[in-house]
Amino acid sequence: MSSNNIVFICAVRLTIFHECIYHHIVKMYSFYFLFLIVALCCQLANGAQYPNFDDRSAVTKIVSDALVGEWDEFSNKSLPFAEFRQKQGLQYERVGTQPYSGFYVQLDENKRIRNLRHFEEGVMDGPVVSWRENGLKFHQGNYSQGKKDGLQTSWSENNMKILEQNYQMGKLDGLSVRWFRNGQKSSEQIFQNGKIVTAIGWKPNGERCPSTRVVDGVGMLVIYNDFGEEANREEYVENMQTRSIERYSNGNIREEGYYKNSQKDGLWIYYRVDGKEHFRVTYQEGKRVKAEFSTGSLENKF
How far apart are CA 223 and CA 209, in angstroms? Predict the structure, then answer.
């Protein structure tokens, strides 16, 4: 075969290779841009449906049209709210005959908005927002068909972001990030369909936590408080949390127990701030089946 033929064949093969690469890149980026367009449309749709909750005039307009309830520091924080009656899991106004649809807000004794929820056909569906006494938000998220769905964000007292999580129909999915109140990152976790995949952590001074390492759903996650003291230790096996130890700010254990299929299972022990045992609860697949108070400080059985 002549050298000219060899050059011609190589040129043809190179052209075919380039065309394959080109079509692959076009296909890949077409999918990427399509995803961005869909996400943008969803954002625009949500933006058209729900106002900017940092706009006080928009919030005032919502309150004027909403079902208004009383905010209480110690009660009326979760379903069923006092202003509703519940029937087959759906929320009805006390005097209503149809499942409630629309905004529900809670005002404190000074008529300041503290909580906002949106309902569709008797179930939470749409934005969820909570405010502090000073008017700053401390939580904003979204529900779909009664389940957390989309971005959920929490802020500290000085308006620093401290938690950002992504949910898909009630299950953690995607990136979950925590921050200390000084702005340093506390942990990064990636979830898939409610199960942890990876996790890394830091201390308040920015130093990487030497104990935190979750890879392919196996490992340990250590959470520190803002003073650099260990606040929680979670062990994972096969993407599932198996054990948890949570501590008070003074270092004493607050509670400890085991998980099964991401739900509390078996014996859990709860302690007072001074370290003495307070009570024990036995769970079965997340449901409390037995509880007993302690008369004094009992031996730690773990």
Answer: 9
Q: How would you class 157 by CB atoms within 10 Å of its CB: exposed for 0-12, middle for 13-18, buried for 19 or more? A: exposed
pLDDT, one tens digit per residue, over 50-108 is 789 999 999 999 999 999 999 988 888 888 899 999 999 999 999 889 999 999 999 99
| Distant-in-sequence, close-in-space partners of 140: CB < 8 Å, separation ≥ 6 | 53, 127, 128, 129, 130, 152, 153
CA distance 2 to 216: 55
With a threshold of 0.85, does the pTM exceed it?
Answer: no
Angle (CA) 176-247-173 rounded to 5° is: 15
Neighbours of 165 (CB within 10 A): 20
Residue whose structure tokens are 């949106």:
118
With beta carbons less than 8 A apart as the criterion, state whether 65 and 102 touch: yes
CA torsion angle 291 296 299 302 (round to 10): 40
String of DSSP letters for 54-89 = T-HHHHHHHHHHSEEEE--SSS--SSSPTTEEEETT
Which residues, in sequence order, are bridge partners of residue 271? 277
Rounded Cα gap, residues 249 and 273, in angstroms = 9
CB 220 within 8 A of CB 206: no
Q: Tens digit of pLDDT for each residue in 175-224?
A: 999 999 999 999 999 999 989 999 999 999 999 999 999 999 999 999 99
